[in-house]
Amino acid sequence: MSKVATTNGTTPATTKGGQAAGAIANWADERLGLGAAMKKNIRKVFPDHWSFMLGEIALWSFVVVLLTGVFLTLWFDPSMTEIQYDGSYDPLRGVHMSSAMASTLDISFDVRGGLLMRQMHHWGAMIFIASMMIHMLRVYLTGAFRKPRELNWVIGCLLLLLGTIEGFTGYSLPDDLLSGTGVRAADGFMKASPVIGSYMSFFLFGGEFPGDAIIPRFYAMHILLIPALLLALVAAHMLLLVYHKHTQWPGPGRTEQNVVGYPMLPVYAAKAGGFFFIVFGTIAMMGGLFSINAVWKYGPYDPSKVTAGSQPDWYMGWPDGLLRIIPPWETHIWGITLSWNVMIPILVMPPLMLMILMALPFIEAWITGDKREHHLLQRPRNAPTRTAIMVALMTFYGLSWAAGGNDIIAIKMHLSINQITYFLRAAVFIGPVIAFLITRRWCISLQRHDEEKLLHGYESGVLVRSPDGAYAEKHLPLPEAKAYTLTARDDDPTPETPEQIEASGATGRSLRLRRLRARLATVFFADNVQKPTAEELHDAQHHAEHELHELESQIAAGPNRHGPTEH
């Protein structure tokens, strides 16, 4: 059979293979609509800004975790069967341990590249959770969570929750002394739940702790259940990103209706692909140079032993810190002990903080009454109350996280652990309030600074002496692009007045809610500086042009003018 293309001189040359491929592609497109979808999205435009790469770090580190996890799965044995270790690590040879611990040691010392893969997997998980947190901070502080992206914010919160649980199940798998201590703590947390706690523990461990089922069950959750949920949520997150179009920073030519940037192919795909290799290389370098989770130093888990100074991975540190500083509160009622000192920091605060995070977009939308779609980002200073709320939450998180190392702080800084504990008990309440007040006033001050630059220009550094001997610094007008960026924002909505609420005819519960919303909106926007009006900007521009012309004339006539000096 000839494979030479044929032509009659008037139609394009074809081959039988090309005709078959075209027919298959046409058949699939008629049934799946892939061609239309590709044509629509292949040239989709994405804006270009360094802050948008924080989400890409989370995505690509997740990919690295998946790739290294597949490698580790081939050699890890998720069994709690007790064996005698006879591998390459001499200090533990002959010690009885679980098959899970032994296979972890084998991966670390006997599988070529195994230790690198283990450490890349662990570092990748750390970076995945950290980058998700920083990405969510960027999204919140710039207002990217507003309509129509509230659901994508909720998905991000769920991704953070699942990533944390995935990390806990992952570092529990080696069955070493440190991870076993963490699992033992989890057993105690469940048993602190009133009435159902012992049943929950019995169900999870398949009997009394530790049993012989927890590692296989964590393994199934770690490699199947939670990754499947993570992949589904990541896919939904990316689809909504494409559907809603990407947010962008204000600037010339950028509006709520367009996106200024680069197309998906070839520019953005090439940049994203290159950035993946940067993230991959960074994690590989960290895995090769920095030791993490050296399980051979801890040894196998023994319920009778606890490692001194043991701490969970950093993202589990803040509830551990609350657990350390809470007073020993307990209640005995009807033969049941309510351990508030365990329930509040572990069973109440984490879900409460998650619910607060998930509710933030909806609370702000209700208070402000803002039902518009937003595709332009806000500078954090232009939403002082929102920025201050997040800084207060960050302060609470940071102080709680520091409390998780109160023993280490006491040892390293030669301080009393009791004094540190008492200080942090007060600081977790007072610190967020102070941080809120300072941040809000700081943002308002920055707003006033921006207004000053818009109306009076920026400091030129040129001092001019007047005929009467006074010195003054001349101001120059901002570049048009900079001025546009500072003014490309909406004015804050005006809260309803009591007269408007009374005139609305609302009664009962509706009236009380409207009064509450008006009061909250007044507090939310209090002291905010609105952007100058068009008339104010026009007058300021005219004044700046006059000052610039005057400055140029003074320089030209002064003793330091260029050219030869006249005598």
From TrEMBL:
Residues 24-250 form the Cytochrome b/b6 N-terminal region profile domain. Its cofactor is heme. Keywords: Membrane, Transmembrane, Transmembrane helix. Its EC number is 7.1.1.8. Signal peptide: none annotated. It catalyses: a quinol + 2 Fe(III)-[cytochrome c](out) = a quinone + 2 Fe(II)-[cytochrome c](out) + 2 H(+)(out). The chain crosses the membrane at residues 50-76, 123-141, 153-173, 219-243, 274-296, 342-363, 383-402, 422-439. InterPro entries: Cyt_b/b6_N (IPR005797), Cytb/b6-like_sf (IPR027387), Di-haem_cyt_TM (IPR016174). Residues 488-507 are annotated as: Disordered. This is Cytochrome bc1 complex cytochrome b subunit. It comes from Nocardioides humi.
